[in-house]
User: Which sequence fits this backbone?
């Protein structure tokens, strides 16, 4: 069933809860379609008087901030063994290439990686746990987490809601286009990160293959 149609069959309180929980779990590190659920709920809010966009945006923001914070705590406690375990269990999401790409982003951008990672599908599930594993100071993480969560969750809700109000008659017939756009953005960012992850994996394998050869050459010269 269409996500928006399903949300339309449940009470407003359940819509708020579903949005907050799904986004919270995604931010914690569990791959879930948080962006699609949020866009669907915001579109529903623009057409359904029972769903308050302010409450919806607040629930989405709280879910994003709390989920990321829990992910940070888990990552800080579990450390790299946690990443290794996740890589074995979920290689498509936590493979060595993905982790290497995310680590390079953190090394280069620091707390900005947490902030901007909120807007990239795959990085959303990495930001909290990886910040904890890399021992980023919590106050830096918290600032980036709060502002990123507010801008992404609250901003997405506001933009989609007001677009829905302005073009309500059009969206009633073509609201699925909003979801298609959200999916395309999410898939595009995911493919971009996946390509970088594959490149990082190939570079790591090439370096590992070259290391023994170099060591053997040095030994023979001795």
Assistant:
């Amino acid at each position: 069933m269409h996500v928006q149609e399903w949300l339309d069959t449940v009470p407003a309180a359940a819509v708020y809860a579903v949005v907050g929980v799904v986004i919270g779990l995604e931010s914690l590190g569990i791959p879930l379609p948080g962006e699609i659920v949020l866009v669907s709920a915001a579109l529903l809010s623009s057409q359904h008087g029972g769903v308050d966009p302010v409450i919806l945006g607040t629930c989405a923001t709280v879910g994003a901030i709390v989920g990321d914070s829990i992910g940070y705590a888990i990552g800080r406690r579990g450390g790299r063994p946690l990443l290794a375990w996740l890589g074995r269990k979920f290689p498509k999401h936590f493979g060595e290439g993905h982790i290497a790409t995310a680590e390079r982003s953190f090394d280069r951008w620091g707390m900005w990686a947490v902030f901007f990672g909120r807007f990239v599908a795959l990085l959303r599930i990495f930001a909290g746990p990886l910040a904890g594993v890399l021992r980023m100071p919590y106050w830096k993480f918290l600032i980036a987490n709060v502002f990123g969560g507010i801008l992404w969750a609250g901003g997405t809700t506001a933009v989609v809601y007001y677009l829905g109000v302005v073009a309500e008659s059009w969206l009633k017939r073509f609201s699925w286009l909003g979801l298609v756009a959200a999916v395309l953005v999410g898939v595009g960012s995911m493919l971009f990160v996946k390509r970088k992850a594959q490149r990082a994996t190939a570079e790591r394998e090439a370096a590992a293959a070259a290391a023994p050869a170099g060591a053997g050459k040095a030994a023979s010269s001795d």
